[in-house]
Design goal:
With 93 residues, this protein is an alpha+beta fold. It has two helices and four strands. Strands 1-2 form a two-stranded antiparallel sheet. A two-stranded antiparallel sheet has the order 3-4.
């Protein structure tokens, strides 16, 4: 299990950006598990396959939300556009 990580995919919603933080407001979410060496195209393909089954929609972009402050807790976002971005996301995980 050490070579895998879990994600919660939020979709069918919006990302609100307020000063330096962001809020994901979404109607639906799914939990998924990936290997740490996953490539972006493979990740998108698996997410699309799962989303299409439940609501017949597809993703156009992937964003990663990560904490930048803990008191109070605040998040920022990073768009995943290539395999290096996925590696960064996993390193922050």
């Amino acid at each position: 299990m050490d070579n895998q990580f879990f994600v919660c995919v939020y979709f069918d919603g919006i990302i609100l950006t307020i000063t330096i933080e962001c809020i994901f407001e979404c109607r639906q979410q799914i939990a998924m598990r990936f290997n740490r060496n996953v490539l972006l195209d493979d990740m998108k393909g698996r997410i699309n396959a799962k989303i299409v089954r439940c609501c017949e929609r597809r993703i156009s972009k992937l964003f990663y939300k990560f904490p930048i402050s803990t008191d109070p807790i605040k998040f920022t976002k990073m768009e995943l556009v290539n395999d290096e971005d996925v590696e960064t996301m996993i390193a922050l995980y």
